[in-house]
Design goal:
mainly beta, 306 residues, 3 helices, seven-stranded mixed beta sheet
């Protein structure tokens, strides 16, 4: 894959706090690292060895450091992009090796852990998963080994106990203490209607973990309808649908990059963070106060084959 170069000898040690990595990612097969350091030019390493054909430029940035030319940008084109991500790091002349320095907390991983602990604390409690089909061989049933699990999906397949549309949950005749859904709500034409349907099958006090995407490539078109910020969950799970949002958060920070060089605000679009995942933990507080029940099937072909 790589013809490795010899690593640079490390000089005398400096404090580790003088190094910061904003980004370590890949774009079109090019490894990219940005950040700041008060030391010498950093390098991109793979499995501790210097990646060939890389170039580093230095520049002055006003914050968080103040030294002249403290900023850095490194690029290294790859012949083969099938590499082990965990083996890539940025090496500094003090011996420090960083993958990335977190700039803000990411909360949705903590939310799902909290939800799983709540389910585990009630052995035998009924749980419904919206969109349970093992489309890529992946299922989440193993996260809830002690619950009474019931999986529903719009299409038949592995791990599906009932075929039904999330907008109606027609045929679901029992109620549940917990609900779980991952990467489904972006494919719902009317997600607020699905929340209304979910209210019907949850017990009062029942908890729902719902995860989708605030940013993600177009996929499974034409059944790709929405993207969700963490604030948007309160517009779906609220008193009108009979819920309250207990927590919401993001995970997997990302950047949006125009495919063509653009001037104006788009030129710095990649400097503004977005996230690939957002999630909420919602609790049913009572029946829905607004009649948002609807079946969008007459309006749109919901025969979702993916």
């Amino acid at each position: 894959m790589f013809q490795f170069l010899k690593p640079r000898p490390a000089p005398a040690l400096r404090p580790l706090t003088e190094d910061f990595v904003d980004r370590l990612s890949m774009l079109d097969g090019i490894l990219i690292a940005t950040g700041w350091t008060t030391g010498a030019d950093p390098v991109i390493l793979y499995d501790g060895k210097l990646v060939p054909n890389q170039i580093c430029v230095r520049f002055t940035r006003p914050s968080p450091a103040t030294a002249i030319n403290d900023g850095f940008r490194i690029a290294a084109p790859l012949v083969d992009r099938q590499i082990a991500n965990e083996n890539v790091s940025v090496g500094f002349d003090n011996g420090n090796r960083l993958r990335r320095s977190p700039k803000r907390p990411e909360g949705s991983h903590g939310i799902i852990d909290r939800f799983c602990k709540m389910v585990a604390a009630k052995p035998g409690a009924p749980l419904i998963e919206i969109g349970s089909r093992a489309r890529s061989g992946n299922t989440y049933r193993h996260l809830f080994p002690d619950c009474e699990y019931f999986g529903v999906d719009v299409s038949t397949g592995p791990n599906v106990d009932l075929v039904t549309d999330a907008h109606t949950l027609e045929g679901v005749t029992k109620t549940f203490d917990f609900a779980f859904s991952v990467s489904v709500f972006e494919h719902l034409m009317m997600p607020w209607v699905a929340a209304h349907a979910l209210n019907r099958v949850l017990n009062v006090g029942g908890l729902a973990f719902i995860q989708s995407h605030p940013a993600w490539p177009l996929h499974e078109e034409p059944w790709d309808f929405f993207r969700f910020s963490k604030e948007s969950w309160a517009s779906i799970f609220n008193a009108f649908t009979g819920f309250e949002v207990l927590d919401a958060g993001y995970a997997i920070e990302a950047a949006i990059v125009p495919a063509n060089m653009e001037s104006g605000p788009l030129q710095s679009l990649d400097e503004h963070p977005t996230f690939l995942l957002s999630a909420c933990l919602a609790r049913k507080i009572g029946p829905a106060s607004a009649d948002w029940a609807a079946n969008p099937a007459p309006l749109y072909n919901l025969n979702y084959p993916h």
